[in-house]
Amino acid sequence: MQCIVNRRAQFSASHRYWLPELSEAENLQKFSLCTRAPGHGHNYVLFVSIAGELDQYGMVQNLSEVKQVIKQEVTSQLDFSYLNDVWPEFQQTLPTTEHIARVIWQRLAPHLPLVKVQLFEHPELWADYLGNGMEAYLSISTHFSAAHRLAHPDLSDKENFEIYGKCARPNGHGHNYHLEVTVKGEIDPRTGMIIDLGVLNQVIEDLVLEPFDHTFLNKDIPYFTEVIPTAENIAVRISSLLQQPIRQLGAELHKVKLIESPNNSCEVYCTQPELASSSTAASEPVLTQV
After folding, report:
1. Rg for the chain (alpha carbons), in Å?
2. CA dist list (Å): 109 to 48, 73, 74, 76
3. What pLDDT digit, counting tens, does each position of 229-247 carry?
4. H-state helical runs in the chain
5. Residues linked to residue 143 through DSSP beta bridges, in sequence order
6. pTM of this prediction?
7. Active site residues
8. How would you class 14 by CB atoms within 10 Å of its CB: exposed for 0-12, middle for 13-18, buried for 19 or more?
9. What pLDDT does residue 290 have?
10. Contact call for residues 5 and 61 (beta carbons, < 8 A)
């Protein structure tokens, strides 16, 4: 039986975004505060996913051995280091989150049956690398607060209560929505980036957070005067707002995940989900519920 096993590790390191061929003003425009010398640090959290058949001992691979490989090949070398200098791969390409994840894969692949490397720079920024050349995924998380009411306009109050329960109460209710946006693209061989992170953050701020935050969605957002603002419909709307602007930045919107509450979240895929059937059309958004 095929099984995927995930192993967590961590390391603390510093890095700096600076290209000597650019002027100070150009570096500041491209990398903002990340240009400050001598650099800045993070507590990185690493998840290594391996796959295989279960052996006679009920394991894909002995996790003690996996732990030692990760320590020997990655964390013992990166922990308390200055990333720009520690590995030759970071001399030509800056040690961005997505590029670090790719290089970690390259270091571990000869020793482990990898299916994914996921690297968190901090809880609101992480990268996934699946072994596909220079292609990587970058995710950012943010939040907004809004109220909504779930009620179909063509149904009676009694019918709406039967479908939506308390969510159909006439004065609505609110949520602190947690939003995750994942983009897919090619790692630039010099900057190490798949997208300008500052610009991406601004796009999300301008198109989603500023219009949606502290609103009553049914009344304040014209789109939801006609569409019931379920978590699923909100996620689909956010994906439609972001797809073209992200494409103009040179990447693709891969996924929008909206967490309405600790018990309720949904995901909208705009490109092929990693674990989806190969028959799933990638051109249409794919909605999954968690």
Report:
1. 22
2. 11, 10, 12, 17
3. 999 999 999 999 999 999 9
4. 24-31, 63-70, 76-78, 83-86, 89-92, 97-108, 157-164, 197-204, 210-212, 217-220, 231-248
5. 178
6. 0.91
7. 167, 214, 260
8. middle
9. 52
10. yes
